[in-house]
Please model this.
Amino acid sequence: MIHTETHDIATLAPFLKDLVRHMERRVPYAAVLVTDEAGERVRTATTEEQVGEAPPSRGAVVTVHTGRATVEAAVDVLTEEALAEAAEQAMARAAQAGLLDGGVAPDPGPVMDHDFATPEETPYAAVPLADKVARARALRDQAHAADGRVVNAFGMISHTRSRELFVNRNKRLFQDLRRTQAVVGVTVSVDGAAAALMDGRGRRGGWEAAALPDGLVPRLVADCARIAGAPRLKAGYYDCIFSPEFSGIFAHEAFGHGTEADMFVKKRSKGEEYLGKPVAAPQVTLFDDPDLPDAAASYFFDHEGQLASRTQIIEKGVLVRPITDMHTAHALGLPRTANGRRESFARKAYTRMSNTFFGPGHHDFGDMLADIEYGFYLERPSNGMEDPKSWGIQLEGHMASEIMNGKLTGRIFSPVIVTGYVPELLTSITMVGREVEITGLGMCGKGYKEWVKVTDGGPCLRLKARLA
Amino acid sequence: MSLDAITRALSAAPGVAAWHVCERVLTSHQHYRVFKAVEAERSARMRTVQITLHTAGTRDGQPVIGEATITLTGDATEIPAQRLREAVAQATLVANPAYTLPGRAAVPDMALADPDIVTDPWAVIADLTAQMDAGAGATPICASELFADVQTLTVVTSGGFSGRYTGTELFAEFVLLAEDGKNSVECHGMRRARRPAELELAPALARHAGWTADRLRATLPATATLPVVFGEEALDSLFDTFVAHAGGRARFEGWSRLAEGKPLIADLAGEALSIAVDATLPWRLSSRPFDMEGQVNHRVDIVQDGRFERRVASKRYADYLGIAATGSGGSVVVATGATPMAELLAGGPVLHALRFSTFHPNPVTGAFSGELRTAYLVGADGRATPVCGGSVSGNVWEAFRNARLSRERTVRPGYDGPAGVRLHGVTVAGGA
Model:
């Protein structure tokens, strides 16, 4: 069962319109975002089973922009009294901190009044919980059946419903977002050496999104057994092929963070110096698209009321445009994109990615393998980190498959780390695969916190990289 | 806000065999700057009440429990009757080995809340902002965030436990810039503590300012197999694999490689480790008197003189394994060694790794990798040259066979132990 607040947050809109009008008698810009996120999670492991609500997040944030700074008050009680009190609190703090005078306020945008909802082929709430438990158990049992060396496995089915209402002087926007995830994880012990892996899919939508592709579980188990006790590769500079998942984490870390325009405002991004200049091989394209059909991180508008649309970040190897939020677009005079996102109502909006991916090319996997004398095919990424100022990058993964004389030898090395200088890696791309894949299980932090849902992906990429 | 109506409803609900309720009330004051200008100020309040209920049953003749959770937010003081009925029905869909919730216990008094943060968080933030600027000196801080949070946590269980504590937390994130006309670099740092005294913001910023300047002249290290001395942030997660394998959960799930009384590391050639997990230390960020289920936390000496002694286990895993419950979480406390830091860095080339882009040894395999953000290559003559980029990789089970620990101690938010740990045979991947 997914329990959202008993009253519909959309009904708060008329009151919030009045509240914004009231605040704008004293400040040049005001807005309110109300969010009501709830979900359900079923996890059945070999040793334990859990079913219940995913931690809900329900509240509102009142934003006052004084022309100089943003002052916000966030509350978790959605009554008119509590919201009015939050507005007063924000106004009082703006005055107390001496932030009320000066500057130019951001543009509230054109007049809009819209309601959006994620379509569900099979409404998640209509499926009995027992069926969800059965599906999670089936994933777990499939993992055990695949290999007797599996010591622990889990299947997990989860669903999140997020309802959001944004109101400013000109806009009333409401969205009802739904995403569903199916995940399977295994721990395998081979001759005393254990390893753990997980895989799955996350997509926008209802119960129909809880299915996993055929063959995913046996392949996961087989890969986990292969990495258990596998040696590390010899550190060096190699020809590589990145799997679509690995390309995805590369897209996210390499140019996603570096083109978040709040990094420009803070003089933290080398990308700012390269706008309009080549940063990658000519066959490379990169996008951020919160409007991508079915993708788990898609939305209809961002947390500052900007309607979702695709941003092309790299076109034919040239860095063409950053992603922005309201504050950074205003401060830098850049076009606004729908990337102003919050972890929750209790946190500040920053420029954040959504679905970030490399565009397709014209090469087959076989073409990419063909002339590699010695190299590695990198799969199953685990994490990454970027340094947007110096363009350093770290990507980690669980699996590097050896390539020799144009063929995969079957030898596996684990784990693997890629480090390097972003433009060097991007300009070393010589082939781009045809098929873009986005798996949808990712989350992204900003600095040391601020987790938001993102996805990333791309086609296979052939490039050179430093591995260890 | 009272939890009485909630606990009464749980006690009276048909089919509910046991329950625990955890209420969190958080207030947060947040201050953001871009260079010296205020970008934003925010305040937030959040309350959640997480209710976990158990149902009782049998499977294959063995007692099992069903479990389900309900979470209330805002000012809710009651569980809607329909939600409670649904949760009981949900719980019966799963079957876990039975365990009992913690019962009545005395809650230790622990110093975790700074009264200044509770009474005037904005004043504390203003003071910390000044400390930050003073510490950075002439090095520009291009972005900073300061949070002053107060959290009160209350746990009540059907077994009779009832406890409450309030803790404060300060969070500071900052980015310093340096340029020399040709290059510009940043140094991104973070500090967390329960009160300003432990945050030590001015000295931390001064250290980061030094690292920022050094980074301008840092070069890619050469590929080699070297002794690496881990220090500063690089220590924060270095022992996490050992702690994970020492957990009740790892044993119950079948992947712990540790057995009581046996050596932690096979074929040990270096210093033997003594490791404890301690949630009882005053003013530590990872200290708390009890866990989310109401189990009172204790210090657990998991490894002594190189031998694995005892598991850390919540009440659930303690019951599953037939061992004593210890609680969950806490600082990783490592006994210092016999070697002065200067000696650990001698006999170069030695890599002194202070900060990685990210560094999380795999909890199951122990494999680790990290891109170097702040590091120094210390030559045979003792001269330290800054290096950056490239990676350090290895496996803790092998690397600790020949570890040496510094005599000097350092205290970090989740770590209390040697200021330097020298590991041999670690791969450094960099340039030719």
